[in-house]
Amino acid sequence: MATNVGTRASRLSAVMREGERVKPLELFFDLIFVLAITQCTALMVAHPTWLGLAQGVLVLALLWWSWTGYAWLTSVVDPEEGAVRIAIFAVIAALLIVALSVPDAFGAHALQFALAYGVVRAGHIALFVLASREDTALRHSVWTLAGSTAVGIGLLVGGSFLDPGGRAALWTLALALDMAGPYFFGAEGWKLVPGHFAERHWLIIIVALGESVVALGVGAKAGLTAGVVAAAVLGIALVSELWWLYFDVVAIVGAARLARAPEGRERNQLARDAYSYMHFLLVAGIVIAAFGLHETLAHVADPLKAVPAFALLGGVALYLLGHVAIRLRHVRTLNRQRLLLAVALAALIPTAAELPSLAILGIITGLLCVMIVYETRRYGEGRARVRHS
To answer: Residue 206 belongs to what domain range?
Structure first.
């Protein structure tokens, strides 16, 4: 399927990916998602209500689905060769407009958000059509995805003319139909490079964790008081623990499992479920928790209000549940300690209204630390074998 280098310039073409290394242009592409994810947190901070939280998560889910589509695309084609490079630059411009529209996506900039998002998704489909020129199975899968994408974009644009409530309902329907397409229309024709695909998702987890660090900095508006310093230290400890929980073993096992899966339908379904679907739970949990961290730094001596308390505790709980789901999909076993800790954090949400936010942050950080120590000791030999094999 590789296109001869000497003929790259002779016609509109796409060069198939030949290696697993993530390319610099893909990292450049992800820079826009740094801004977009930051804007989702800004939307929640500007509207610290249940509705604002739901709107932020909905926009984040739309952004995620567009990002993961490009992860599949660049696991098929080389993003830096042929016509793809220029097209990616054009998509980056459209994605920037999407990111700039996020804070007012449920207000005056709804249409701008929907139209720019439509351009991003249309670019994804167009590049896949180009890449599938000589692959009938891939071309069939692309056209089925194009159908669900077109319906989703139409609903997004239509919803932009409605009131915020109707818009949220129609956009949720658009997202559900768009995300359901790959599940119901089969996974046989898709292609991916396992190492590259896994690494792309590792990097987006880093992007989300980076947004948590940004939230810590933005939340510290009252200066470097003793409380702010303590909250900042605990906050970065929490972000580090979230990093540890994923990258210590989970990321390595996931990449190995994907590489071992038979090429074709089985591997594609695993990638779709564990990465395109379940990794959103990780990203959403991190971003929701970042909103809670922002509010903690802004009010270290006061109890968190109901929505930020839910965000901080519930976001970390969602992140842990994502790990439980991913392990079930990869190795068919249940991570009981992460499931129990997620339930415990959810049960602590009512307590957050009675304790200073700094104390709640300390409790979360402490519980995660205990679990990390427990897992490291319990799985010591197996952990070492996974990490160094």
So the answer is: 196-389
**Do 141 and 249 fall within a single domain?**
no
Q: pLDDT tens-digit profile of 249-264?
A: 999 999 999 999 999 8
Q: Write the DSSP symbol of residue 3.
A: P
d(CA 18, CA 11): 20
Nearest Cα to Cα of residue 237 among 309, 187, 296, 184: 296
CA distance 31 to 351: 37
In angstroms, the CA 47 to CA 374 distance is 38
Q: What CATH code is carried by the domain that includes residue 316?
A: 1.20.1410
For the chain, what is the domain count?
2
Residues 97 and 202 in one domain: no
Nearest to 49 by CA among 290, 251, 306: 306
- pTM here? 0.92
What gap in Å lies between CA 301 and CA 168, rounded to an integer?
Answer: 35
**Residue where one domain finishes, among candidates 150, 174, 191:** 191
Q: How far is CA 129 from CA 123, 141, 379, in A?
A: 10, 10, 46
Q: Could you give the residue ranges of the DSSP H alpha helices within the chain?
A: 24-46, 50-73, 84-101, 110-131, 136-159, 164-184, 194-219, 226-245, 251-260, 265-270, 279-298, 306-331, 336-347, 357-378, 380-388
* pLDDT tens-place string over residues 57-105: 999 999 999 999 999 999 888 888 877 889 999 999 999 999 999 999 9
Q: Which two tokens stand for residue 113?
A: 């958000």
